[in-house]
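Field: sequence (string)
Field: structure_tokens (string)

Example rows 1 and 2, in order.
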Amino acid sequence: MSENISASARVGKQIRGKFLTTNIVVLFTLFGVSLPAISDPDVVVKEAWVEEGAPDAMALAGYMEIHNQGKKSLILTGASSPDFGEVMLHATIVANGRARMESIERLEIKPRDRALFKPRGSHVMLIDPKRQLKKGDRITLFLNFKDRKAHKLVLPVKSTY
């Protein structure tokens, strides 16, 4: 009999715990407060932004510094965004006075080093925007790393004009 009581008590605690957690999430959502994402302490992103394009632009570029604070190499394998149809990582290669873009399939960032995505250099190519973006807007971007959870970012749209 006491086994049944303690089993019932455990189930009751689990239900109350789930109910409380669900209510907290609902309240945060209703009042427009976002819960902090569990982030990877090895990945630190600085100076992240998206360049504003023309109103009919089919592609925009994103820039940032990705710092590896860890003791092992980070392997960046791609990116995605709910705000764009497609996202690619590109390097700008200049040869014989001509610049061309080349897809980056995999980028290793050594421990205590950084990767720079900057104008006229490597960048995040954001293709087929799902809405017109202008200065002051924000987009969500996920950086995908090998053997890690996606790193969520919110980037502001800035004008360079």
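Row 2 begins here:
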Amino acid sequence: MSQHSLLDKARAILSQPKHDAELAFIPGGLTPPNAAPSASPPAPEGIQIEPAAPNAKGVYWEMGDGRILGPAVPEFFLRDGEEYWISVTFEGHIRFIRDDRLRSRKAFLEQREVKEVELIRSF
């Protein structure tokens, strides 16, 4: 299964409304909250998706432009072969964070503020 289809499946899973008290997410579909959970969620071969612990601490990560964002509480952990991903909702958007992008709270607090500067043109 390609990484693109994995992300599509995870987005579909994570786009389920959290505020709907009548339904609870169980991989493979929506079922009433009093239904017995399945032993193992169905996942494509080589891909593992697990819900994060309800008491998981917030995570911080580095963006491509060098900014460190967070904290965001993990919702799901995904493993595709040797790659590990954390799914979070941050500022209303679902984000998938690869494990090598994770950073510490200390790095988040000590980062320099990004300032836009105007290009100085030569004479």
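free_text_note (row 2): The chain has a mean pLDDT of 76.
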